[in-house]
Write a structure and sequence with these properties.
six-stranded mixed sheet; single chain; Rossmann fold; alpha/beta; 18 helices; 2 domains; disordered C terminus
């Protein structure tokens, strides 16, 4: 049987930025009606390639063919004309407008020179109905869930009769139920002959929904494979250029004194949560999205004081009145939203690292620049942060290196308890392993780690003990030797979620 003719061909795509060659003659071929994964480590060139396809960036060399015809994509408008749509990780929606207005923004149907709002709503409803989606079109999209906002973006793509839809990390913030709905939708798009380019670091999703994959590494095309012909280990080796035999490099350390104990923590829908974390161990706090995990972390970090319950640090009761108080007490929180809560993107690496302890670098009301630069430089070296210099703005770093900067600032603060909230979200497999090795180093130094994670392989691979939350309560505890995905999911679904209780009420 002859090979299917590619609907999209990107040949020899090259892109240079000042001091960096982002793409080096990359090839990408997409068949009509296939789901094609595009994978690679952070900085491999995936986003740059998609921006070129979307007309947001211009290539320096190469060719693009659609339907056998060479085309020039020099603007997002041209990409739309060619029925290409890109759904970025940060949605391109106007928060104050409703779904219908967002779907047809800039392409509003008109009648007698005026926007035909009735037709706009009718067409929007038709598209959403075809996706099996129903919600109030008049509600501002800022009030919709992340999954619903994503559906609005997909509806925008369908409104231009898109033949190619690229999705950048579409599952990053979805619940398990929402993820299943997304996969069902992708399969429906495939049946309609629409090609989907699926960009994700979650390899299990790729095996679930994709037909083929293409791997990029350091701006180069490494290869394209049928999903059925490659293993998870094979994909990782293509991505990083070497075999990674221990994806989760868990190491056993002597368990020391109790660092953290919480008793009966209660706030809002979170009720009577009690557990402890000791030196030398990783305690994972897991469960479905909305189970109350982050709420517990915020109470321990002093961001949301508990309504009831107590927090003990190194054997002494402590009342944490603010995050500053928690930091001064030796508690740090590596938030899941590192870009808006963990870092100041417009500031330099040096400034972000030294910010929590800036007072220590001050002499007579002035910052001692030499001391600050030395401390930041040592942190960058110790954590192998890849950047031109400590003066690089953190917005220009990959996700993995941004996470290292967050970790560096807490190491400088001499923290005792590290709370990792989704520590590897949006990070490639190579960078993930580096984070895990850094966690091991923290344990070796005598720290204690509370890790909040939705990724069950990560939980099973790195935790000493696993605490499972369900519906705002602690449903059970499992030791790593007895834990399985099935046992975790059983505990995670014992009690109704906050959202489910709201619906019942």
């Amino acid at each position: 049987m002859p090979e299917p003719v590619p609907f999209l061909r990107m040949l020899g795509i090259t892109k240079n930025y000042p001091g960096v060659q982002a793409l080096k003659g990359v090839n990408l071929e997409i068949r009509a009606g296939e789901v094609h994964a595009l994978v690679g480590e952070n900085g491999a060139g995936k986003s740059t390639l998609m921006k070129i396809l979307a007309g947001a960036e211009t290539m320096d060399a190469g060719e693009i063919h659609i339907g056998g015809q060479q085309v020039v994509i020099d603007s997002p408008h041209k990409a739309q004309e060619l029925q290409i749509s890109i759904i970025y990780q940060e949605f391109n929606l106007v928060p104050q407008l409703g779904a219908a207005e967002n779907i047809f923004l800039g392409r509003e149907p008109t009648r007698l020179g005026f926007v035909d709002f009735r037709r706009e709503r009718r067409e929007a409803r038709r598209i959403l109905d075809s996706l099996g989606i129903s919600f109030d079109l008049d509600v501002p999209v800022s009030q919709l869930s992340i999954a619903q906002q994503q559906m609005v973006e997909i509806a925008k793509a369908l409104s231009i009769d898109a033949k190619i839809i690229a999705m950048d990390e579409p599952s990053a913030t979805l619940t398990l139920h929402e993820l299943k709905n997304l996969f069902a939708l992708i399969r429906a798009l495939k049946e309609k002959g629409i090609s989907v380019i699926y960009i994700s670091h979650r390899l299990e999703e790729i095996f679930e929904v994709c037909d083929r994959l293409t791997v990029l590494r350091d701006g180069e095309w490494i290869g394209t494979r049928d999903i059925q012909e490659i293993s998870r280990e094979g994909i990782i080796e293509m991505m990083v250029g070497r075999k990674i035999t221990d994806e989760f490099p868990w190491a056993e350390f002597p368990i020391g004194e109790e660092v953290l104990r919480v008793e009966g923590l209660t706030r809002g829908f979170v009720k009577e949560v009690s557990f402890s974390v000791r030196q030398g161990e990783i305690v994972a706090l897991t469960g479905l999205v909305g189970a109350g995990r982050t709420e517990v972390a915020r109470m321990i970090f002093g961001a949301d004081p508990p309504e009831k319950g107590s927090i003990w640090l190194e054997g002494r009761p402590i009342e944490l009145k603010s995050p500053r108080h928690a930091i001064d007490s030796g508690i740090c929180l590596l938030t899941e939203d590192r870009k808006s809560q963990g870092l100041i993107l417009g500031m330099r690496i040096r400034e972000n690292i030294t910010l929590p302890k800036l007072r220590e670098f001050c002499r007579f009301l002035f910052i001692n620049g030499a001391m600050e630069r030395k401390a930041a430089g040592n942190a960058v070296k110790d954590l192998t942060i890849k950047a031109p210099s400590i003066e690089t703005e953190v917005r220009n770093l990959s996700g993995g290196n941004q996470q290292k900067v967050v970790l560096a600032k807490w190491l400088l603060a001499n923290s005792k308890l590290f709370i990792f909230d989704e520590p590897t979200r949006g990070i490639d497999v190579g960078a993930k392993r580096e984070i895990y090795l850094l966690m091991n180093e923290l344990l070796r130094r005598g720290a204690a780690i509370l890790m909040i994670s939705s990724e069950l392989p990560e939980v099973l691979g790195m935790a000493n003990r696993i605490l499972v939350m369900s519906g705002g309560r602690l449903a059970g505890e499992l030791h790593r030797n007895e834990a399985t995905q099935e046992k975790i999911m059983h505990l995670a679904t014992l009690f109704p979620s906050f959202q489910e209780r709201e619906l019942v009420a």
